[in-house]
Amino acid sequence: MSEQAKEQTLAETAPSRYECRSCGYVYEPTKGDSNRDVPPGTPFEELPNDWRCPVCGARTSQFENIGSSGAPSGFQENLNYGLGVNRLTPGQKNLLIFGALALGFLFFLSLYGLR
Ligand SMILES: [Zn+2]
């Protein structure tokens, strides 16, 4: 019982986003779909059966769960593996990547300074 409750917590705090495999459109549960009268906060699983991708018209079965924006990326079971990178949210990953880029740029500039 407690195991199940724990698994549900992650899904409840941040509903999963779904990406259209045909065109790359991402359904954001927090935004809903104003074109189809889907109110913000509607999980993908509760969309009407006749809901289609607003961009290319693909069925909901063509969508892939890409996880929520707020929760750590990667599968929940994998969170403890792999140097802890899987625990980072996408925002933190971006910070890491751009931070590394900025450092590389500064290093590049310092080479110019030496000439
Ligand atoms: Zn689409």
TrEMBL record:
The answer to whether UniProt assigns keyword Plastid to this entry is: no
UniProt family annotation: Belongs to the rubredoxin family.
GO terms, molecular function: electron transfer activity; iron ion binding
Alphabetical keyword list: Electron transport, Iron, Membrane, Metal-binding, Transmembrane, Transmembrane helix, Transport
Q: Which cofactor does it need?
A: Fe(3+)
Gene3D superfamilies, A to Z: 2.20.28.10
What organism does this protein naturally occur in? Answer: Allocoleopsis franciscana PCC 7113
Which domain of life does this protein belong to?
Answer: Bacteria
Q: Which PANTHER family match?
A: RUBREDOXIN, RUBREDOXIN-1-RELATED
Q: Kindly list the biological process annotations in GO that this record carries.
A: alkane catabolic process
Q: What is this protein called?
A: Rubredoxin
Q: Enumerate the spans annotated as Rubredoxin-like domain.
A: 15-66
Q: Where are the transmembrane segments?
A: 95-114
